[in-house]
Amino acid sequence: MSVQLFRLKNVPDDEAEEIRSLLEKNYIDYFETPAGSWGISMPAIWLNDEDQLEKAMQLIDSYQSERLARYRSEPADRKNILSELFNNPVQFVAYIAFAAVILYFSIKPFLNFGQ
């Protein structure tokens, strides 16, 4: 009987591909279910043989620990508001001005409501 091994929802494509290749290298028979046309189905990797579940789980657990260690050792390139301001100051100011104009026109009728 088939058993679900790994959910692919919100999993990066490179991680999903590495898990597929890991299963193929270890001769674990699997199949995938897609997310469907509208993305409402559960994309997952399923095993055809339930007896291979424990081995596959061990392989995936060790892979994910290695992946976590690899990503933690890499320098982080995190974006925040200040980095966007320094990278694209003109675009940042334009977005803030656009938001201020929209906010002004949204609340202007309420400011003149009693007059």
Structure explained in plain terms:
The structure is a single chain. The protein folds into 2 domains: 3-73, Alpha-Beta Plaits, CATH 3.30.70.1530; 81-111, no CATH class. It has a 3-stranded antiparallel sheet with strand order 1-3-2, with helices on one face. The mean pLDDT is 90. The longest helix has 23 residues, at 89-111. The protein contains 4 helices and 3 strands; from the N terminus they run βαββααα. With 115 residues, it is mainly α. Helix 3 packs across helix 4 (89-111).
In short:
By secondary structure, the chain is mainly alpha-helical. The chain has helices at 13-25, 53-73, 81-87, 89-111; strands at residues 3-7, 30-33, 44-47.
Give the arrangement of secondary structure elements:
Blueprint: E1 3-7, H1 13-25, E2 30-33, E3 44-47, H2 53-73, H3 81-87, H4 89-111
Antiparallel strand pairs: 1-3, 2-3
Helix pairs in contact: 3-4
**Global mean pLDDT:** 90
- Quick one: CATH class of the largest domain? Alpha Beta
Strand order of the largest sheet: 1-3-2
In DSSP terms, counting alpha (H) and pi (I) runs of 4 or more, how many helices? 4
CATH superfamily of the largest domain: Hypothetical protein rpa1041
The assigned CATH architecture of the largest domain is 2-Layer Sandwich
Total count of domains:
2
N- to C-terminal separation?
74 Å
The Cα radius of gyration reads 24 Å
Helix content: 55-70%
